[in-house]
Amino acid sequence: MNKRLTVAMDGPAGSGKSTIARHIAGKLDYFYLNSGSMYRAMTLLSIRKGVPPTDAPALIELAKHCRIDFADNGQITLLNNEDVSDALRTPEIERAIPDVAKVPEVRREMVKQQRRIGKKGGIIVEGRDVTTVVFPEADLKFYINASVEERARRRFIEFKENGIETTVEQVEADLRLRDETDGSREHSPLRAAEDAIVVDTTHMTIDEAVDFVVRQIRES
Ligand code: DC
């Protein structure tokens, strides 16, 4: 297997898709594109500019004139050339992002940038609509899932490790809400593409999930 494929992966928050995608990019020497980081960077820009997440026309203007790039094989997010990687996972961004990500023209601009980055292949891209909207012609598509209880357990451990005080119940309630907003929005809702390989990671370790996906890529 020496073709430089486009591999797309969607799934809900906490399914393990970011970790899996990052590991696979490392193993295959592919570029790693986290499309969620792009929506996060766009949301950060709107907060910095004082644009309320409900002001769609102003958001569209911002989206049209910003450039989001990735460096260090996708580990670093650049917003207009500034490294904003450490500023993307704040509660303020989490609160505003559903409103920003539901504006169709904002999505169109983000999709353009994702396609610009992905056009040469040799890429693993992950998000909510990358198998259905961004790269419907991807060589391989995966839908990564896990039970909401398991996803909440994983997120809770992550928060604890980062010193964030919360409870598993709270994390689970937030995840259910996010599933609902990501899955029911009018434009590009989260859903499994018809030709996606579904991977349920509820009872899998990261290594098992990574091995499974790598095998599919190598055999394709
Ligand atoms: O994957 P993440 O948690 O970093 O994504 C953050 C938010 O961005 C998520 O709640 C929905 C949105 N998103 C999106 O609308 N489309 C994508 N392709 C990726 C993320």
List keywords for this structure.
five-stranded parallel sheet, alpha/beta, 8 strands, 9 helices, 220 residues, single chain, Rossmann fold, three-stranded antiparallel sheet, binds 2'-deoxycytidine-5'-monophosphate
Explain what the structure shows.
By secondary structure, this protein is of the alpha/beta class. The protein has one domain (6-205): Rossmann fold, CATH 3.40.50. The protein has nine helices and eight strands. The strands form two sheets. A five-stranded parallel beta sheet has the order 2-6-1-7-8, sandwiched between helices. Strands 3-4-5 form a three-stranded antiparallel beta sheet, with helices on one face. A hairpin with a 4-residue loop joins strand 3 (68-71) and strand 4 (76-79). The longest helix is centred in the last third of the chain and has 17 residues, at 168-184. The radius of gyration is 17 Å and the shape is globular. It starts with 5 loop residues before the first strand and ends with a helix. The structure holds 2'-deoxycytidine-5'-monophosphate (DC). The site of 2'-deoxycytidine-5'-monophosphate (DC) has 13 residues, from helix 2, helix 4 and helix 8. 2'-deoxycytidine-5'-monophosphate binds next to helix 2, helix 4 and helix 8.
Topology:
Blueprint: E1 6-10, H1 17-28, E2 31-34, H2 35-48, H3 56-64, E3 68-71, E4 76-79, E5 82-83, H4 91-101, H5 104-118, E6 123-127, H6 130-134, E7 140-145, H7 148-161, H8 168-184, E8 197-200, H9 206-219
Parallel strand pairs: 1-6, 1-7, 2-6, 7-8
Antiparallel strand pairs: 3-4, 4-5
The structure holds 2'-deoxycytidine-5'-monophosphate.
2'-deoxycytidine-5'-monophosphate is lined by residues 13, 35-36, 39-40, 97, 101, 127-130, 178, 182.
